[in-house]
């Protein structure tokens, strides 16, 4: 293994890319220690601890804990992700933007530039909302030392500049480093919190927080984490292989083609993006719920309370959002019509399926089925560990509530451990790590070095069924 890691630094281009990525991640983490002036850090920390299991806690997780400390990078890349969602939706419903996307590299550059502008606008809006919310406080608690227009302007300028710089860091890592820059920034933010989560586990074991159930609770949590990681690795490598046959052709004086191959379709082609998109959308109600016009309206208060984490409507919308974005993402990444046209252009066909529209429909049907499996997998990964952490909050249902009255307290109220051990965080960490390793391995194999995987030197996909 050490020899294979050393191979990374024997290739000058790959070595420079890895070192550049590490340098950019170090700069990003440096922003975690530069706070926004004028914030009552203690009161803000208590507020986030009370909402650690909510979408706000998930947004704070993506920022690496910077939001709870309101550092200069507190908004993280969430404005950029929201802007990307907006433009991806517009490419489906707005025809001029769809045509621009099909123009190739020039069209994609224009869309990327517009995404940057919208990111800055969203940064201004979100930082203004945060500044005004903190200025007003809640429940008699003051989150700002000297509230006023000066604090609002300072916060808006600081947070907007910070999210713009984070966006630039992510793009630099993607272009000049290794891996996807935005995903690696989220990865770095989660990983730095893992030591704190482990320390919390150790502290819980020492204090016997759950009495006689402490040891079983810790064993269940550790076993669940290992099982979730193994399940994530298995599904992320799973793929549906469609056999493709290429007919023999005469090119010049040579006989070409006649080979058999396959078209690999990953079970979870969207990766962690559907979960991130869903969390980004559902974090908006919690942010708006702190506004004064919401708290002064009884009707709006009931609506926003129903959309809090753990409530039935929130869980339902979260599931629907994951399924929607899983299908939406796959519709952008894979276009069955283009796959069928390219296959026919090079003399390829699927055995038993006629080229053209029949091939496109066949690929689309398979994508529809495996995307549903991938969406269910994301739902299970996101919700099951969260139930272990937050508990089975079903007491608001009169029919099933009595069934849980005799269960131990750590089952109904959850283990109460840090949110870093949620399924979403594990999914992001494992998924991004696997994607980055695959890219490094591809670079090594391309330069005739042995990869990380045994025997073939490639990460082989497993059939999903």
Provide an overview of this structure.
This protein has 465 residues and is mainly alpha-helical. It has 20 helices and six strands. It is globular. It starts with a helix and ends with a strand.
Strand content: 5-15%
Helical content band: 55-70%
Distance between the termini: 31 Å
- Gross morphology is globular
Enumerate how many helices there are, as a single number.
Answer: 20
**Helix and strand string, N-terminal first?**
HHHHHHHHHHHHEEEEHHHHHEHHHE
Protein traits:
single chain, 465 residues, mainly alpha, four-stranded mixed beta sheet, disordered C terminus
Structural topology:
Layout: H1 2-8, H2 12-30, H3 41-50, H4 55-62, H5 66-69, H6 78-93, H7 95-101, H8 105-136, H9 149-176, H10 181-191, H11 194-207, H12 214-236, E1 238-246, E2 249-251, E3 254-256, E4 260-266, H13 273-288, H14 292-295, H15 298-306, H16 312-333, H17 336-345, E5 348-349, H18 357-390, H19 409-412, H20 423-446, E6 462-463
Parallel strand pairs: 1-6
Antiparallel strand pairs: 1-4, 1-5, 2-3
